[in-house]
Amino acid sequence: MSKRQYPSQEYLRQCFRYKNGKLFWRHRPLRHFYDLRACNTWNSRNSIKEAGYLNTSMSGGPRWMVSIGHEMYQRANLVWVMHHGNTPPLVDHKNRNSLDDRIGNLRAGSRKLNSANSKKPSTNTSGIKGVSWNKLTGKWVANIKAEGRQIYLGLYTSKHEAGKAYKRAAKMHFGKFACFK
Questions:
Q1: Whole-model pTM over 0.85
Q2: Domain limits at 89?
Q3: Do 125 and 163 fall within a single domain?
């Protein structure tokens, strides 16, 4: 799979003003358009307005999308390119809010690391990520999914001890991407 091409940092800075995780259209120059009429029409309709729209149909949560030159981009990726000049394989939201595109909330990641930042499943009944009750043994079991496989972390008499085992393993496997909630 080829890496998607993004507009240059310089071009994005000509198009947008960044403020608190949002992008606002600047008055764009004639060279961004095919003729003067298109430039004037576009600038009269869009200049100084917030760029993009909310797309709620994407898997992984809603995302703010922005169209540039008939191409759609996630706002978080455009913010990243504007600030860093490059595009990582995946831009991750530290606080797991996919609409919070403040540069301080974004970090470079990968699909594998981003899955580590996921919240506990809705089917979790222990209240602690990675911990479940084992009816056969009458104990709490801790497991973690890392490196493409399920890893058994042991049986515990206390769910809090099992939770501590999960936290240790998550820190070891995922580092700063580890999520415990």
A1: no
A2: 9-109
A3: yes
